[in-house]
């Protein structure tokens, strides 16, 4: 069991009622059984949570949830594990349609906690808030895992289109263009390695890469 699973199970134990949580970042994949076994070299000390806009007031007023988070952090403090990053969706770089594509994460040991994660494209886009070295490492893993699990490579063109319609919080707007460029460049590098064109699977054969740069839409 990895650290993200330990955090989720501890939170589940302290919850007093059914609770839906959307996780993102590295924990989103470490909590996905399709990917967790392929991420032996990736660890995390926390679980990042997105609060969808339509749940924000409800979650803010849910004292039992915040007590469960507090108790979880207290119990896991000695292990260096915690939940501290809980973001309203307006504070995360995401496409406008992200909630329509969330992926349920099923865990037999969770009795009250219902987990979801954004689709892989939105997990990639969410990394454009910083685009630092660790973000690029994570994006490379995300693109590789998505290709292995689905047979489809998320292409630079798809990422550019998603970035162009993304909702970018004010705090990230200055660094977003450069972070986007780094992530798109990484996607193009992987396309070159796979010899694919946008929309093709890795086995479809070589084709030209997109020539246009990121379209920011702002």
Protein model, in words:
- It is a single chain.
- By secondary structure, the chain is an alpha/beta fold.
- The chain has 2 domains: 3-118, no CATH class; 121-204, no CATH class.
- Helices cover 43% and strands 10% of the residues.
- It has helices spanning 3-14, 26-30, 33-36, 56-60, 63-76, 120-126, 133-150, 156-164, 176-194; strands at 19-24, 48-51, 86-88, 103-105, 113-117.
- The chain has a 5-stranded mixed beta sheet.
- Helix 6 packs across helix 8 (156-164) and helix 7 (133-150) packs across helix 9.
- The longest helix has 19 residues, at 176-194.
- It is globular.
- The termini are far apart.
- Residues 201-218 have low confidence and may be disordered.
Q: Strand count, sense and closure of the main sheet? A: 5 strands, mixed
Q: How large is the radius of gyration?
A: 18 Å
Overall outline = globular
Order of helices and strands: HEHHEHHEEEHHHH
How many beta-strand runs?
5
Strand order of the largest sheet: 3-2-1-5-4
The mean pLDDT is: 88
Q: What distance separates the N and C termini?
A: 42 Å
Topology:
Layout: H1 3-14, E1 19-24, H2 26-30, H3 33-36, E2 48-51, H4 56-60, H5 63-76, E3 86-88, E4 103-105, E5 113-117, H6 120-126, H7 133-150, H8 156-164, H9 176-194
Parallel strand pairs: 1-5, 2-3
Antiparallel strand pairs: 1-2, 4-5
Salient structural properties:
single chain, disordered C terminus, 218 residues, alpha/beta, 5-stranded mixed sheet, 2 domains
């Amino acid at each position: 069991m990895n650290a993200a699973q330990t955090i989720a199970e501890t939170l589940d134990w302290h919850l007093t009622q059914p609770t839906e949580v959307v996780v993102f970042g590295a924990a989103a994949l470490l909590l996905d059984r399709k990917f967790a076994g392929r991420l032996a070299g990736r660890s995390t000390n926390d679980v990042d949570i997105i609060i969808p806009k339509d749940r924000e007031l409800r979650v803010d007023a849910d004292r039992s949830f915040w007590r469960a988070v507090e108790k979880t952090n207290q119990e896991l403090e000695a292990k260096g594990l915690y939940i501290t990053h809980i973001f309203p969706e307006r504070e995360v770089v995401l496409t406008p349609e992200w909630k329509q594509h969330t992926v349920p994460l099923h865990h037999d040991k969770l009795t009250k906690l219902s987990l979801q994660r954004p689709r892989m494209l939105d997990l990639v886009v969410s990394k454009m808030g910083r685009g630092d070295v660790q973000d690029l490492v994570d994006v490379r893993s995300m693109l590789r895992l998505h290709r292995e699990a689905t047979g489809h490579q998320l292409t630079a063109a798809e990422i550019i289109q998603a970035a162009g319609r993304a909702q970018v919080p004010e705090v990230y707007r200055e660094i977003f263009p450069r972070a986007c460029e780094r992530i798109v460049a990484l996607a193009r590098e992987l396309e070159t390695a796979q010899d694919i064109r946008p929309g093709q699977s890795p086995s479809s054969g070589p084709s030209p890469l997109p020539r246009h740069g990121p379209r920011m839409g702002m």
